[in-house]
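Hello again, I could really use a second opinion on something today. Take your time with it, there's no hurry, and the full record follows here:

___
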Amino acid sequence: MSDLATILHGIDTIIGQDQLEERLQAGKKLRVKLGVDPTRPDLTFGHLVVFNKLRQFQEMGHEAILIIGDYTAKIGDPSGKSATRPALTDEDVQINAETYLQQAYKILDKEKTTIVYNSDWFDKMSFADSLNLTRKMTVARMLERDDFSKRYTSNTPISIVEFLYPLVQGYDSVYLKSDVELGGSDQLFNMLVGRNLQKDAGDPEQIVITMPLLVGLDGEKKMSKSYDNYISFNDSPKEMFGKIMSVSDEGMWEYYKLLLSKSDTEIEVLKEEHPMAVKKQLAHQLTAEFHSPDEAAHEKAQFEQVFSKNKLPDDMPTFSYKELSAQIPECTLLQFLSHTNAFGSKGEIRRLIKQGGIKVNSEKCMDENTNIQIQGETVVQAGKRKFFKITE
C-alpha cells in the first residue's frame, strides 16, 4: 500500500488531497499537527482514532506535533455542545496535561514526537493582537456552524469566548506552520479556520484530515468523557477488556476499522466467524496494546471463566467483615458498594440496584438497605464485570 493510500485509509474527510499528493511526491517532510485539550484526566479510545493516524505519519518519517491545548482548554471547545462549557482552573488544566503526555506515549514514539503547549504563544499575545485575530472572522461565518446555529435559533446563550475558540485553534496552525492537521469529524470547521488563516498570512495551506467519531459504549453518542461512555487509555486490563466486550456485535466492526485499521476485506472475513470469538479477539488485541499480551490473555481467561463457564473470577477485591464493621457500623449493601470506591457515585450504585444488577451470593438484591450477612465468604456481584469478596 502506498503512503497516500495508507493515509487515506479509514478517514472521514480530506481537504487538499492534491496538495498532499504534491508534497508527498516532492519528498517533503510534513509537519503534522494534532491538538488535544486537557479538559479531563483521561485520553479515550475516541482519541485513539486520531492518535493512530498521527502515528502512521510518524512511521512514514514525518514530524508528529502534539499540541497540549492548555490555553484552549480554559476556553472550552464548543464543537457539538448545546451549552457553554464550565471554566477550568489553571491547576485543573496542568494536572490533566501531565497525565496526557504519559498516556500519549503509549501510542506515539516519544523520541520522535514534538510536544508543544499553546499557552507558550497565546500567553504572550496582547489584547491588540487578539483583536486583530478577531478581524479574520465574521459573525455570519461563525453562525454557519451547525452547533452555534442551533443554539442561536433556540435562544441558548453563546459566549463571545466560544466564538473565539475556532480562531484560537486555527492560529495554532499559523504559528506552527503545519502542513497537515488531524482531528475528529466534529473539528472540521475549526480546522478549516486554520487553513484560511494560513492563506491570509500568505503561508501554504494545511491539508485537513478528519477521522470518523467512534461511537461510545452506549451505542448511540460519540465516545466522550462528557457522556461517560468511554474506554480510557488508563483503564486497568480488567476494565478495558470488560468494557470492550460490552460493545455491541454490530458496533465492534467500527472498532476493528478505526482502532486496529482493519480493511473492509479483512472485516468481511472476520464476519464469517462467531461474534463472541471475534469480540474476544478485539478485546485481547486492544488490551495487549495498552498493557501486555500476558495481561490481556489473563483477562480473556477470566472473562471466559465468568461468562462462558459461569464461575467466579480468581481475582477479586477482598474485604474483611471485621474491618468493614469498624468503618461502616451499618454495613448495608449501598454503604459497602460505596466503600469499594469502584463506582462514581452512590447514585450510580442506586441505579444499578434498582435495575436488578446487584447479586449477593448469586441472589439478586434490590434493597439498598439490606444488611450484608457473612456466612464464611460472601461474594457481591455488581453488573456483569465487578465482583467483591467479603471474608469474616
